[in-house]
Amino acid sequence: MPAKPETIAALAARFAGLSASEFRGDTRVVVLKDSLLAAMQHLKSDGKFDLLVDVTCVDYLNYRDARDRFGLVYLLANTVTNERLTVRSFLNEPDLTVPSMVPLWSGANWLEREVYDMFGILFDGHPDLRRILMPNEFAEFPLRKDYPLQGRGERHNFPVLKRNQA
Amino acid sequence: MSVAEATLEQRPQEQDYLWTLNFGPQHPATHTTLRLVLKLDGERVVDAVPDIGYLHSGFEKIGEHLDYNQYVTVTDRMNYISPLANNVAWHGAVEKLLGIEITPRCKYIRTIIAELARISDHLLSTGAMGLDTGAFTFFLYAFYQRERLYDIFEALCGARFTNSYTRVGGVMHDMTPLVVQKIRAFVKSFPETLDDMEKLVNRNRIFVDRMKGVGLLSKEEATNMSATGPVARASGVTRDLRKDEPYLAYADFDFNICCAKAGDCFARYYVRMAEMRESLRIVAAAIENIPSGPANVGVDERTALPTKQQVYQTIEGTITHFELVMQNRGFTVPNEETYSAIEAPNGELGFYLAGDGSNVAYRARCRPPSFIHFALFPQLIRGHTLSDVVAVLGSLNIIAAELDR
């Protein structure tokens, strides 16, 4: 269910530079990076968006007419009124640090770790920001558009441990 | 204060007699490839650190290189216990992005297969819970019925395990009378097995003692930790996308949302057993009321692939097939991003899609319920014994292929 117009209006009144749009029943807002944490705090306490459905990221490197490199996506839901809201925020290199949402929703913990693992976005204030799916030795961020589908030979050069070394 | 909390307080964590146990990645009770590092004080689990990624195969990266019809084969391999539900979720998301409205018959067919997939998933998860806690007969009862569901899926699309049944704008092909007949027979005989299963373990002292009061999750924690599906409903969250955001044909059916208040392993088992009965009600009502008409949206709209008969015998069919299959043609995709989710057996299974005009997704993010539920694990197991690890793991129904993708 799309978010109520009042919810969007209240958010737009408090945060400058916010743009809202709708596409096929999804309400989306784009928040400036600096006001991201405040906006999410507002959505959680006043908008009653108590469920963080997902955190993900899109790399716009090859995207037509894209001005920013990364788009962070937070999908929020209200479990009482079933409103849904997509909050996006754009990031550019070299400053790929955003505030972590773990203090607001504990469910953000692993979701943000995965975004860090795949895109290299740093979450400030995250309690345990480590790689989650890729091995710790892995040096690159595989879901970035400049990383090839077949990899860069990591699979073939992977160190093989002998039984006595393990 | 429970026994578990008392033990934790008496024995501070810095004690050096804590023992570290490596559980997995290859262990019969993890069922799939995942690893837990457990910190033990005698038999009590003081802390658990999940280590995942052993089955990571880059499904989201592959999604940026396969077109909207090809990728359905990859979704089969995410939660391979209920691949049909993943197929429905994927193509539901693609059709939302493309703006395709599927036919009423297709909505019914997808509803039926999604509910059959739910029964098959819950049979495995409850059966495996029984197996892990010593009720082997229970597991065999469940698996016999799963075989019958596989027979239905085989008659439906030729594959038992990796179905890939849906297509953009429709399904692979319409249901045949044989499938309808098999589903009717299943609907008729399955409640008896459910009764047997409940009689076997619901009041079984060993099973109940191992499940009740283990792995407690409160309602607030469940929502705060993003839990959905049976795991959240066993803690008293009433959210079910089938009722809250009725998609496909769910608005036409009369069914209940099954919830429990306890939030322990037994509640999660009980919710799943109850959900199977409700799913069966939906299937029984849907199979008798399938609307007639085509299963796929019209060939003229150039959305669904035409049948082979249309391709070989009509010029429109040949042209549509050519337009859709050639790499530089295909679907009309907007430069937009959408999120669409269904109530999969394990919880909310959604796809966040970014389209860029080509017939390959620019970004195909999957919101995997197993991944989010496994993050709950350390919190649920702290203070319980080593033998409870398998009970909690089973009640969360972690499918490592979906966990790691």
Tally of contiguous helical segments of chain A = 3
Q: Please state roughly what percent of the residues of chain B sit in beta strands, choosing from under 5%, 5-15%, 15-25%, 25-35%, 35-45% or over 45%.
A: 5-15%
The CATH H-level homologous superfamily of the largest domain in chain B: Cytochrome-c3 Hydrogenase, chain B
Number of strands of chain B: 8
Main sheet overview of chain A: 5 strands, mixed
Strand content of chain A: 15-25%
Order of helices and strands of chain A: HEEHEEEEHE
Helix content of chain A: 10-25%
- Provide mean pLDDT of chain B, rounded: 87
Largest sheet of chain B: 3 strands, antiparallel
Strand order of the largest sheet of chain A: 1-2-5-4-3
CATH architecture descriptor text of the largest domain in chain B: Orthogonal Bundle
In CATH's first tier, which class of the domain at 5-97 in chain A applies?
Alpha Beta
* CATH superfamily heading of the domain at 5-97 in chain A: NADH:ubiquinone oxidoreductase Nqo5 subunit
Tell me, briefly, the overall form of chain B.
Answer: globular
Short summary:
With 166 residues, chain A is α/β, with parallel strands linked by helices. Chain A is built from 3 helices and 7 strands, in the order H-E-E-H-E-E-E-E-H-E.
Structure description:
The complex is a heterodimer of chains A (166) and B (405). With 166 residues, chain A is α/β, with parallel strands linked by helices. Chain A has a domain of 93 residues: NADH:ubiquinone oxidoreductase Nqo5 subunit (Beta Polymerase, domain 2), CATH 3.30.460. Chain A has three helices and seven strands. In chain A, the strands form two sheets. A five-stranded mixed sheet of chain A has the order 1-2-5-4-3. In chain A, β1 and β2 form a beta hairpin. The model of chain A has no long low-confidence stretch (mean pLDDT 87). By secondary structure, chain B is mainly alpha-helical. Chain B has 18 helices and eight strands. The two termini of chain B are 40 Å apart. The model of chain B has no long low-confidence stretch (mean pLDDT 87). Chains A and B meet through β3 and α3 of A and α2, α9, β6, β7 and β8 of B.
